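Figure S4 source data
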Amino acid sequence: MARVWFVRRLGGKWVAPGGQPAFEMPFADLVFPLDIGTHRRVDDDLPVPAPQLPPEEPAGLQRVIVEVEPKDLDGLEFTGYAAGFYDSTYSPAEAARRLGALRGARRQASAAS
């Protein structure tokens, strides 16, 4: 599962207050809702989990970064992606709205089957 980090700037780093990803979902499910293109890869300035800081609401955070491991790419129909970090064009608040709606739709589909 790919990890979606909601982060804010603290000093010279992007930190994830609470130290936990906001979402963990299959990478294929994140590409379109978060507008993750291959050109959005981030090779520096990566997120730093900050468990010593209390978790914050998405509206108080500044950036969405998706962490992708090699196993997340197995069987992926989209090409050009590599393991690493990608940033989204959306704010943490908008990403939470989009992913929350996606997660809710999946639960309803599972319940109906």
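Figure S5 source data
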Amino acid sequence: MPLKLKKSQTPSEPSSVKDELSGPWGRINPEPQSVVVLRLCKKTSLSTEETHSYPYRALSCWRWRGGGEEELKIEASSDLITVKGRGMDRLVEALDRGSLVVLYGPKFGSPTDTLDSISVTSIEITRNED
């Protein structure tokens, strides 16, 4: 006797929602307050990459400037992180909710083609000298 496959009791997540939460720019966890560490990955040369991880408790503030090329500045411990690109308002919302998991700089993934998506054009990390 052939087995009958059961249909899922819960509808699968629409791909558009999933696409808004991850891409070549990084990943956002859909659950608020679910992330302990923010990870930033960037290429420093064709063969070298760097990963910086910051506990959320070390993030003291962030500032977003929209319009044209957007800029997001994050103060983390003694570091100042500057992220440039577009669609950054969604990243700010994810930071506010404690659900931004990882950000990838350029060359980590294929560029996004749609104008309404998130795109990271640069990630710079500098030490704050007090």
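The chain has one domain: 23-127. Residues 23-127 form one domain.
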